[in-house]
Amino acid sequence: MLEEVERWLSTRSWSVTDRPLHQILAAKQRTGRTVSVVLPALNEEETVGDIAAVIRHDLMRQVPLVDELVVVDSGSTDRTSEVAAAAGATVVHRDEILPRVPAAPGKGEVLWRSLLVTSGDIVCFIDADLRDFSSDFVSGIVGPLLTDPDIDLVKGMYDRPLGGATGQGGRVTELMARPLLNMHWPQLAGFVQPLGGEYAARRSLLEQLPFPVGYGVELGMLVDALHLVGLDALAQVDIGVRKHRHQDGQALGRMAAAIYRTAQLRLARGHLIRPSLTQFERGGDGFEPRTYSVDTEERPPMVEIAEYQARRAA
User: Fold this and answer.
1) Averaged pLDDT of the chain
2) Fewer CB atoms near the end CB (10 Å): N or C, the chain?
3) Do residues 154 and 222 lie in contact, with contact meaning Cβ atoms separated by under 8 Å?
């Protein structure tokens, strides 16, 4: 590990207990910074309501940490929108945001568009499939951004149990993302959960970043933020245990391909040789190929979008 990363781990890796809530609230009052929480959601009716309700109760009613709670529905066919609204979140449908640009499927697309329907100086992203959710997830990763003006992006770190086994979740992280980062961007080797969906950043940073439309968004954001603001402006906070729905092996393969493609573009900014992935499933006549396209699109920095510029000027 680079000496720079060892030093970073000792100065930019914290626990949620390092910043008590009263300290975070005092910093928020002193700085006047506002906080938006965004939940990207696709068919998450079983969990999105509980997450929204905890945030509303703990961080909006009991204490005024969160100013805005927005669920962006990316085309759910279940009751995600109704459940989220009933829990007190503002629900916006992906296709209603920037309608002149046809929406692409993918998580990154939703996160990018969320910048147009939120107003917070700090934007906190929380995945909508979490179980046993704690509001520490929000306060823990927002805290450093309110108390330390030199921090621009904070990732959550946590244990990810799989089938009762501690630390066995995050398979794409260990098999794809971590090797890529260690080999090509070793300054980022200290991040425990580089692909984790719980993180917060200053709007002033997010609006300058391109957003891969799919699963590559977290890796792309880390790499681009490193180049834009430097390692010392990035941090991570231990927020405990993350429980969520796990994908099957083939879905993880497609995620890994999208992440590799995101890394490839940042390494070479060249053309893709074959932006597709073939996997195999056993059928009636033996193993049958299934070919999936790999996300090849990225959205430009939001600050370049005319509608966003107009909103800022208003």
Assistant:
1) 90
2) C
3) no
